[in-house]
Amino acid sequence: MRLLFALPGFHKYERGAEIALLSVAKELAKTGDDVTVIGSGQARPDDPYKFIHAGSIRRENFEKFPFIPLFRSETVYEEATFAANLALRYRPADFDAVLTCSFPFTNMALRRPVLGGKKPLNLFITQNGEWPAVSNDAEYRFFDCDGLVCTNPDYFETNKERWNCALIPNGISIERFKLGPGDRAALGFPEDRKIILMVSALIPTKRVQDGIRAVAPMEDAHLVVAGDGPMRDEVKALANELLPGRFTQLTVTPDQMPTLYQSADVFLHMSLLESFGNVFPEAMACGLPIVGHDTPRLRWIVGDEEFLVDTENLTAVTTALTEALAARAAAPAKVSERALSFAWTNIAQQYRDYLTRLMENQA
């Protein structure tokens, strides 16, 4: 199969969407498919796919811009600059299928009319949410796709009657995310406190400030937040007030992520609802107990043995963190079979099976 993956951040950022889609692209390329990736970074010599550069302007440059219909966030501004360059480099006739999780501009650029010949199948992945597929308001009414990859069962149930859907979760590299000693000294973490880890962008939906409030009563705990974003000043100010000397905010490279998890005692995630959340299986694969918001979607990912509560009740979060730390101290860390089921090799095979079915139906 001749496949194209397109996303503004490819080879420029290591965010959740970029990691997920590139992991699928790599696995498909390694097992024989002809894979091309278009992004705003630069080619890397060891990748098994072809890379094409299409520049974009960093979303951070748009944080002060007005948010208006169509341009609803700094992310959409960034995507618009990418889509303009994508349109110049994208040749539909070169591909059997194109895949993205970016809307509106990237999705529309990949669906442009073709004069003669057959258009490639257009797959949209609900990595960042299902909103384009379910809404008919404003620009969302222009959304279309030939196949919808639903990253959780909620999305699948909502969309299966309208779109040609497949339920395929995200995955992890089980070769990288595994049990290990960590390296608190290298990361600058204290050795004499319990480390509670959040891996979150500093944006409202991640509720990092509520995480700070929940950890504050735990005098023996040190909160680490790995991530950055427009709320960095508010987060720092609250941490200085409630967690003086017990807070670290940092960013790490992708190569450091396994060591980051391995250096913690508990993983905390405060988002009320996410399309998937790669961080959960990554943390589980490194042996960390999970404290998160109790939803059927999250239980589908982590199972019923983790410490899931109503995270809008901060007292309940503090209690869950205390229980998770006690459980970690009482037994050696272990990797659940559930975490291993998310290996990227398994996920990529599900993509290939789905693409094969779509192409057979198109023939």
UniProtKB/TrEMBL annotation:
InterPro entries: Glyco_trans_1, Glyco_trans_4-like_N, Glycosyltransferase_grp1. Transmembrane segments: none annotated. Residues 16-176 form the Glycosyltransferase subfamily 4-like N-terminal domain. Residues 183-337 form the Glycosyl transferase family domain. It comes from the Bacteria. Pfam families: Glyco_transf_4, Glycos_transf_1. This is Glycosyltransferase family 1 protein. It comes from Parasphingorhabdus litoris.
